[in-house]
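Quick one, tokens below. Sequence please?
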């Protein structure tokens, strides 16, 4: 009596398969149950992948199984009469043993014991995607009444195979996306363009399993190598082969066999050891930023669909990072040009200004030169304006250095009181012109860490502002104190004060206090002073200000 159709078992296995993410475990149970129902000794499930066959699972007795998970050419299987009939009819084939002499050596031990086989097709949308082979070692042939059960298990095995593939593809896609995200995050940390290009090459090779790669920028009908890990020297030029143009037009990676394409001719001068190439455009919006070309050495398999998908996931964020990297590179180049221009301009200005200041001082000091009151005023104005021009030029140079992150800052031990005293001495002549006074209070010997030139410049700016913005006789007090691991320098004036809505704006570039348009200045003093203070590890703030009380600026520096 033949076994009855295992309806309950099939239903239970189907439900288990539908609710399980581990399709391969369920696949094994399906095969185990098929042995019982079909009275077989071994069940083996295989899938067809391209021109090959992969052993997906095998259960039963009859020798050690070493072939699960391995791939074999279907050409040798096609010589088996039972398998050949399966290919032709796509129906279950019942028969005797497989032909051992035609089998792969790994199968022969198991096949030697087989007397009867049933070969069941695994179909998906009418296409043959695999086969289920059941074997009996006893002399009991499979018969027609076995076919319904075998067909049912074949369909269920096919469902398990499909679910397993979908799950593995999804898992692989998740890994590729995660790898692409991690690679993009790693690349995004770099701002140096050559280092960025090399990191893109590294991660692209890892994503696609390539041996070497190069990034090219497109110039007319040629690609110029900007970065490489061995495909071609930097600066070498490739004609844009048809395959490269196809990849550009498609906007996605394209694989080519170098021996059959123009790419081999392009690589020939560099003794290319590559048999397969993968070409991918690096695009951001409508801009072609470059072309990624990678290769595999002779003897390796072509790039798989998974390799190409891994690269596709990576090139999109890589193109965005490369776009940003090129912008940063161009910005740095522009900043360098601006800095170089400012250096030259200030150098060219200093010479004439120094001459002007020198001659005016000589004329004003020479007793042999008799100047009337009006001429003396004019000479004083010339000297004052020349000094202002020199200060403005120096401010612009400092601004350029700050914005290009090229401002050199020393971290020396400073006696702050000495620097304050020197700054007051420099400011006193201007203050006395307006009958003003400047006093210093506090601990003169307190020490801070900073740059002598920058601290002196900040103090000069604060005192100059206190004098310039006073509407009556300037009365200025400077105090020095040690506070909470910092040195605090406060500059108090008796000016008109700063409105609430102006207290941060006055530290912006080219900002001028409201209602003080007649005061001479570049509008850079407070901005540069705060920037200098912060680069020394301190700060500059407007601590207090009022119409009656004037303004008090606080400069803090790290204590020594």
């Amino acid at each position: 009596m033949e076994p009855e159709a295992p309806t309950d078992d099939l239903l239970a296995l189907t439900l288990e398969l539908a609710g399980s993410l581990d399709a391969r475990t369920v696949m094994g149970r399906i095969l185990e149950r098929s042995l019982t129902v079909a009275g077989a000794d071994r069940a083996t499930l295989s899938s067809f992948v391209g021109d090959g066959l992969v052993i997906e699972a095998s259960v039963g007795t009859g020798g050690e199984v070493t072939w699960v998970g391995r791939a074999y050419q279907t050409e040798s299987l096609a010589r088996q009469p039972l398998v050949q009939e399966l290919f032709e009819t796509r129906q279950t084939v019942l028969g005797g043993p497989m032909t051992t002499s035609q089998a792969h050596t790994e199968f022969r031990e198991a096949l030697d014991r087989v007397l009867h086989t049933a070969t069941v097709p695994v179909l998906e949308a009418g296409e043959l995607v695999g086969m289920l082979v059941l074997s009996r070692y006893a002399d009991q042939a499979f018969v027609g009444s076995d076919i319904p059960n075998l067909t049912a298990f074949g369909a269920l095995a096919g469902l398990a195979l499909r679910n397993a593939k979908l799950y593995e593809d999804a898992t692989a896609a998740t890994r590729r996306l995660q790898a692409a995200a991690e690679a993009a995050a790693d690349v995004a940390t770099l701002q140096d363009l050559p280092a960025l290009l090399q990191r893109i090459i590294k991660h692209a090779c890892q994503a696609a399993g390539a041996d070497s790669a190069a990034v090219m920028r497109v110039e007319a009908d040629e690609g110029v190598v900007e970065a490489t890990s061995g495909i071609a020297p930097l600066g070498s030029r490739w004609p844009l082969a048809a395959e490269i143009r196809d990849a550009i037009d498609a906007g996605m990676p394209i694989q080519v066999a170098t021996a059959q394409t123009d790419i081999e001719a392009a690589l020939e001068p560099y003794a290319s050891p590559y048999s397969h190439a993968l070409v991918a455009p690096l695009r951001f919006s409508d801009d072609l930023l470059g072309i990624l070309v990678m290769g595999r050495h002779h003897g390796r398999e072509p790039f798989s669909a998974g390799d190409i998908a891994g690269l596709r996931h990576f090139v999109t964020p890589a193109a965005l990072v490369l776009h940003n990297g090129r912008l940063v590179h161009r910005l740095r180049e522009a900043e360098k040009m601006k800095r170089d221009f400012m250096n030259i301009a200030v150098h060219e200005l200093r010479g004439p200004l120094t001459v002007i200041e020198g001659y005016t001082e000589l004329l004003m000091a020479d007793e042999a030169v008799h100047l009337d009151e009006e001429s003396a005023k004019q000479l004083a104005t010339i000297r004052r304006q020349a000094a202002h021009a020199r200060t403005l030029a120096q401010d612009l140079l400092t601004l350029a250095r700050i914005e290009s992150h090229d401002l050199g800052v020393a971290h020396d031990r400073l006696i702050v009181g000495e620097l304050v005293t020197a700054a007051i001495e420099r400011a006193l002549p201007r203050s006395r012109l307006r009958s003003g006074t400047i006093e210093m209070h506090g601990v003169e010997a307190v020490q801070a860490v900073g740059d002598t030139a920058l601290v002196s410049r900040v103090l000069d700016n604060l005192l100059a502002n206190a004098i310039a913005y006073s509407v009556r006789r300037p009365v200025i007090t400077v105090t020095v104190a040690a506070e909470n691991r910092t040195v605090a320098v406060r500059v108090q004036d008796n000016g008109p004060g700063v409105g609430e809505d102006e207290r941060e704006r006055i530290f912006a570039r080219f900002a001028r206090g409201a209602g003080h348009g007649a005061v001479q200045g570049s509008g850079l003093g407070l901005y540069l002073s705060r920037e200098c203070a912060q680069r020394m590890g301190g700060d500059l703030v407007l601590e207090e200000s009022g119409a009656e009380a004037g303004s008090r600026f606080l400069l803090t520096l790290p204590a020594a």
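The radius of gyration is 42 Å. Residues 334-403 form one domain.
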